[in-house]
Amino acid sequence: METIFNLARKACGISSAETARLLKEPISVVKSWCSGLQAAPEKPVAILLNLSQQQNTHAQKIGLDIYRFQKKAEAANKNYIAESKNTLTF
To answer: Which end of the chain is more exposed for a tag (fewer CB within 10 A), N or C?
Structure first.
């Protein structure tokens, strides 16, 4: 069975080694928390869950910015095509 700590680590997209550096804990401790050999304290779990939430918030903002940019680019392209048709002579 997967531990909450390991699920939170995976949600952050970071390795056990990166988690150890982030939390300033030995890799052996992080691995024992991931595997469930030792129960992870509340604070490291909270840190990972908070990081995951921050990543999701930023990803949503970036996604919305990209969507808006694409809509502006599509509108500009349509205007350019329309203007080009008006200036073409045969």
So the answer is: C
